[in-house]
Design a protein that fits this description.
- This protein is an alpha+beta fold.
- 37% of the residues lie in helices and 28% in strands.
- Strands 1, 2, 3, 4, 5, 6 and 7 form a 7-stranded mixed sheet that branches.
- A hairpin with a 2-residue loop joins strand 2 and strand 3.
Length: 208
């Protein structure tokens, strides 16, 4: 909520969607600073997911953005599967059921899965890999997972879950590039923060 109050959650979102309209460099600056203090907030998934919805989303999907900017809603991307962080051909599948899409499969180590208001899920379709917006509810089971750094992650099990397509095949590549960039920027901040702590300690340390 403090990040939202500072206007940082909407920093790179278009002004038409309520954001500040800045770019990827500004987004990375925020993530680097968050990494320096290892901030326990899901920025590396929330921000790229919001960007993808702003770029490719329908008006109905973009209705998620005001809550994402205010911090009331957490958005996340469910892309990882067992032993594969960014599978080119996900085992999760999406099939049309009349005029709707139903998703079936399992996504692992999904950031902020237990508190997410919506997921962008990658899935294999007859036409290739697509992205879908999925809301918690029928056909979606989230199981909390434990990881070594204490981050809040979860296993998302989809059993005929209703999803709405997010753009075309290009949306998947677009999203995955920004998720990778966001994670890299955050880890750069972690390294810089560790270096600053080490330098400060070395200036004051007294040996025996």
């Amino acid at each position: 909520s403090k990040l939202a109050d500072a206007g940082l959650l909407g920093l790179s979102l278009p002004e038409a969607d309520g954001g500040a309209g800045l770019g990827v460099l500004e987004l990375c600056t925020v993530l680097i600073e968050a990494g320096k203090v290892v901030a326990p907030v899901p920025l590396t998934t929330h921000l790229p997911t919001a960007l993808a919805i702003a770029e490719f989303g329908t008006d109905e999907q973009k209705a998620l953005l005001p809550g994402a900017i205010s911090g009331e809603k957490v958005l996340t991307s469910a892309v990882s599967e067992e032993r594969d962080h960014l599978p080119a051909s996900p085992t999760t599948t999406a099939a049309q059921d009349g005029g709707t899409w139903r998703l079936t499969g399992v996504k692992s180590v999904v950031p902020a899965a237990t508190v997410a208001a919506a997921f962008v899920v990658t899935a294999t379709t007859p036409e290739g890999t697509r992205a879908f917006v999925v809301s918690p509810g029928d056909g979606v089971t989230v199981v909390e997972q434990k990881v070594s750094d204490g981050a809040r992650v979860g296993r998302v099990e989809l059993d005929g879950a209703l999803g709405t397509p997010l753009g075309g095949a290009d949306a998947v590549t677009w999203l995955e590039q920004r998720l990778t960039l966001a994670a890299t920027a955050f880890e750069l901040g972690v390294v810089r923060g560790a270096l600053d702590l080490t330098a400060a300690y070395s200036k004051t340390r007294e040996q025996f």
